[in-house]
Design a protein that fits this description.
This protein has eight helices and five strands, in the order H-H-H-H-H-H-H-H-E-E-E-E-E. The protein is of the alpha+beta class and 258 residues long. Residues 218-245 are annotated as: Disordered.
Length: 258
């Protein structure tokens, strides 16, 4: 009876759909909560009436199929982080702590944690810091910061799941490319002729290049704001200096990849 509300688009159905999507964000998987194996991901979900219904359905060997928006993969070779953790067969306690780190950082996929060229894990993400490089399409719940012990587990698991043993530090075994998400999802854009642009509310703040570049380049605020970035601006993956914005520094230092 309850499921009819979703197909009939009633207020109750909208509430149920919102709950399903919220749980899907918590568990970090590509399909709705009732379609998941309870023993695999239930530990990451909040204790709600929907979680109890999920458990009852599994006990009764019932399966319900319904449409639910999937968590977005943004480029070739992208993957959901939780899927990678499950493939490693981490235990349930570890999955809970990894999900906690992921929710704090507000990330779901490998592309959410990599540099704009898809070759490295961003330093801020590695260190457990939110850097605001990409605009998230999701409404994330507030989450208490995990402890140092949990971040060590985060780093160890990412190393096992993603990192190359022989390449530069934090480099991916399988680089990502090309990006397929809209440019509007990015908070930082780069123009080879003008410089960097950072989204601040409804405007773009301009950062001009300082000096010449050899292996690095510095950008300083130009005190200029525009309502739109120039047509030459694109994702910073085309910039040879972009490693993601470092936290809390007045100048933006970009390190060359090669």
């Amino acid at each position: 009876m309850l499921l009819r509300h979703m197909s009939n688009r009633t207020k109750t159905g909208a509430y149920m759909d919102a709950n399903i999507q919220a749980h899907q964000l918590e568990t970090g998987t590509s399909f709705g909560i009732i379609q998941q194996v309870y023993s695999n991901t239930a530990i990451s979900a909040s204790d709600t009436w929907l979680k109890r219904v999920w458990k009852d359905f599994e006990d009764l060997d019932m399966y319900i199929a319904f449409d639910s928006p999937a968590l977005t993969l943004r480029c070739q070779h992208d993957a959901l982080l939780i899927d990678l953790f499950l493939k490693l067969e981490v235990d349930q306690d570890e999955l809970l702590w990894l999900s906690w780190c992921r929710m704090f950082l507000q990330v779901c996929t490998v592309s959410d944690i990599t540099t704009a060229d898809g070759r490295f894990i961003r330093r801020a993400i590695w260190d457990g810091l939110c850097d605001g490089t990409v605009r998230s399409p999701y409404q994330w719940p507030r989450t208490v910061r995990p402890t140092r012990q949990h971040w060590e587990l985060w780093q160890t698991t990412l190393s096992t799941a993603l990192l190359s043993l022989h390449g530069p530090r934090h480099s991916l075994r399988q680089p990502l490319s090309p990006w397929s998400d809209p440019v509007e999802n990015w908070n930082w854009l780069w123009s080879p002729t003008v410089g960097l642009f950072h989204r601040t509310g409804a405007t773009w703040e301009h950062f001009a290049a300082v000096g010449s570049a050899s292996t690095s380049r510095r950008y300083a605020p130009s005190r200029s704001h525009t309502t739109s970035a120039p047509s030459t601006a694109s994702r910073p993956n085309k910039s040879p200096w972009w490693m993601g914005p470092p936290p809390s520094v007045p100048f933006k230092t970009m390190t060359r990849f090669s």
